[in-house]
Specification:
The protein is of the alpha/beta class. The chain has 23 helices and ten strands. The structure holds adenosine-5'-diphosphate (ADP).
């Protein structure tokens, strides 16, 4: 059980809820309106048959027009049934059509508009997960705001309808000659009113106590564990071998309990289940019992007044039904105040996430769309620390490169190569120094304009389970000839020729039985074709050949100059042999550029490049000897 939280005041909770409602109103007003109408109709309409039932019984017992009342009862019952069915159908349609898309839009729009560094921040990822967990686990958060508003409208309608139907119970007097004439005394009326308020208050209080066991209990970690294992891990084919080999199901089951302090989250021994077998269950039962005691009292009061001749016996059912509705409506309203306060706590992560500010400066200059693609990039004394870290991932980096050049970025793991690319593509801004495009700080350009200058194959790029051609063009309608040409240039030509459906072949088999499973190396070639199709002036390739075997790599590099044409290419590579053809090689070490030059010069010079070169040459030499030995055997 999580430690007891500081609760928000009612005003704060109401403000949180108001904000939630305005978010829904903006995203999907139709869902709000249909929910309100449904709850209103559900609350008000049952009073109609209740009224006519009473009139019918009165007519039977008092000699009124039974047939008219019977017809009215049947007609009202039919109208109520039809209207309710129509409203339910409309509400269901609205919810299915708009609720989830709106929910997703609220969060996806935020994710898409956020600064990249904030998406990358594990704190924000955890926040996003927490929002989903709270929704999945107890329906808390934004969805609950919309339900609370609809239920409040329902409760209000129930109260108003009941008041209208029960007012005559208090006004109509018992006959003066009756022995029950004391029921006309104002104290009797006051007594009934007090009893009702007491029942409303107690019933709501007990229900809120029962509900408070939920908001004092944090089930998100258990839910996270459960969701990861069953919804992600078990559904991903590439994990199934590991799950079996390492019995990860047992690990997760045990981990789930450990995360919950030994709690099994959903099972019969969970904290919530135990609470409902104990005090929470007792409070929930007491809430229902109090309401029933009140209904009994109303039966007594209305029955006695009917005996005293205040109204017909049929009206007793009307008053009992109406007052039970009144008390339920009022206690629902009180309960909703409790729910609203509990839910406001769970809205905190939602607002914290939606309020993450965009800190990156967004300039307004447009990048010149130069036909000659004459661009020059300069890093001027650039330094960068990842958020929340002290160490400099890059420091004092200065370099210049012109369009059409091939720049290789080499260095050991952790030396800052990927960080350099992230800064170049403005996923992050430097903490020190500046990066210039044609002499102007890149922050001054429009962000989308600047990004459009780059086509990047990130190390962990992803292809879609969609047709090959659409993957290359990143669009449904595309230039087929160009897509094919790019695939051929990227070295995928021979494989393409083997595919019976060519560009229309679906990648992977999630959606199509005849989809193809491409290897890591083939996927890299497709990703490269995607870059070529985009035709941006800068191509950035982060370890573009890591998944290729040495032969395929040699083949690809021999063609690189032709593939890249007049574009500027920046490669990150582990294998120094791949960089020989580059115009410029920047050697990174501990976040600094320690050497710059061409391969032939660098390899002759004492320094980091030569050390790396010799270490790799040793490896290749050993590998070749091993191959020779194997062949000889
Ligand atoms: P390389 O690409 O050369 O392997 P990186 O640029 O990825 O190196 O990393 C440079 C340094 O920055 C390393 O010390 C690494 O641990 C650190 N680093 C990389 N990414 C992050 C991150 N998201 N948060 C904190 N530190 C990071």
């Amino acid at each position: 059980m999580a430690e007891k939280k500081e609760r928000l005041s009612f005003r704060q909770a109401a403000a949180y809820t108001r904000r939630g409602l305005s978010i829904w109103w903006e995203a999907a007003p139709e869902v709000l309106v249909s929910g309100w109408v449904r709850e209103g109709v559900d609350a008000l309409f049952p009073y109609l048959p209740l009224y006519f039932t009473a009139q019918l019984v009165n007519a039977i017992s008092g000699g009124g027009d039974v047939w008219i009342m019977l017809a009215a009862l049947l007609a009202s019952t039919a109208v109520v049934a039809v209207v309710r069915a129509a409203v339910h159908c409309w509400d269901e349609t609205m919810r299915r059509a708009h609720q989830w898309p709106a929910w997703n839009r609220i969060f996806f729009d935020k994710l898409l508009s956020m600064d990249f560094c904030d998406i990358d921040d594990p704190k924000n990822q955890a926040l996003r997960t927490q929002i989903d967990q709270l929704r999945n686990w107890g329906g808390f958060g934004l969805n609950r705001v919309y339900r609370v508003s609809a239920e409040a409208i329902g409760a209000l309608c129930r109260v108003l309808g009941a008041a209208a139907l029960s007012v005559s119970l208090f006004i109509l007097p018992v006959r003066p000659d009756s022995a029950l004439v004391w029921l006309n005394h104002p104290l009797c009326l006051l007594g009934m009113a007090v009893l009702m308020l007491l029942s409303v208050f107690l019933s709501a209080r007990f229900a809120n106590w029962a509900e408070s066991y939920w908001d004092q209990y944090d089930g998100t970690q258990g839910n996270r564990n459960f969701s990861f294992f069953y919804f992600i891990a078990m559904r991903e084919r590439h994990r199934s071998a590991d799950i079996r080999a390492y019995a990860q199901d047992r690990y997760f089951e045990a981990g789930g309990r450990a995360n919950m302090g030994g709690d099994d989250s959903f099972g019969p021994t969970s904290t919530v289940a135990k609470a409902y077998r104990g005090r929470a269950g007792a409070f929930a039962a007491a809430s229902g019992a109090v309401s029933q005691v009140f209904v009994g009292a109303v039966y007594l009061f209305a029955g006695l007044k009917a005996l005293g001749g205040a109204f017909g016996v049929g009206s007793v059912t009307q008053y009992v039904g109406a007052l039970a509705g009144l008390s339920k409506g009022l206690s629902d309203l009180l309960e909703l105040v409790g729910v609203l306060r509990a839910n406001a706590e769970f809205l905190k992560p939602t607002y914290e996430f939606l309020d993450i500010p965009n800190k990156m400066y967004q300039g307004s200059l447009t990048t010149e769309k130069r036909a000659d693609r004459k661009y020059e990039i300069e890093f001027r004394n650039v330094g960068f620390q990842y958020p929340g870290t002290e160490a400099w991932a890059l420091r004092h980096v200065s370099m210049k490169f012109d369009v059409g050049e091939r720049l290789a970025v080499v260095g050991e793991n952790g030396s800052g190569k990927t960080t350099f690319i992230k800064l170049l593509c403005r996923l992050y801004d430097p903490a020190e120094g500046e990066i210039l495009l044609n002499g102007i700080d890149i922050r001054k350009y429009r962000y989308d304009d600047y990004l459009a200058l780059f086509s990047v194959v990130f190390q962990d790029f992803k292809l879609l389970s969609q047709p090959l051609g659409q993957n290359v063009a990143a669009a449904e309608d595309y230039d087929r000839a160009r897509a094919e040409e790019c695939l051929v240039k990227a070295g995928f030509g021979a494989r393409l020729a083997e595919l019976p459906k060519g560009l229309d072949t679906c990648l992977y088999r999630e959606f199509e039985d005849d989809g193809v499973e491409v290897s890591g190396g083939e996927a890299q070639k497709i990703a490269l074709a995607r870059v070529l199709y985009q035709d941006a002036p800068f191509i950035v390739l982060d370890e573009p050949t890591a998944a290729l075997d040495p032969e395929a790599e040699a083949e690809m590099y021999s063609k690189f100059n032709d593939i890249v044409e007049d574009k500027t290419a920046v490669y990150i590579s582990h294998r120094l042999s791949s960089c020989r053809f580059c115009d410029e090689i920047a050697v990174f070490d501990h976040g600094k550029v320690v050497q710059q030059g061409v391969h032939d010069t660098l390899v002759e010079t004492e320094g980091k490049y030569r050390a790396l070169w010799e270490a790799q040459a040793q490896y290749y030499k050993k590998e070749r000897e091993r191959q020779n030995d194997l062949e000889w055997m």
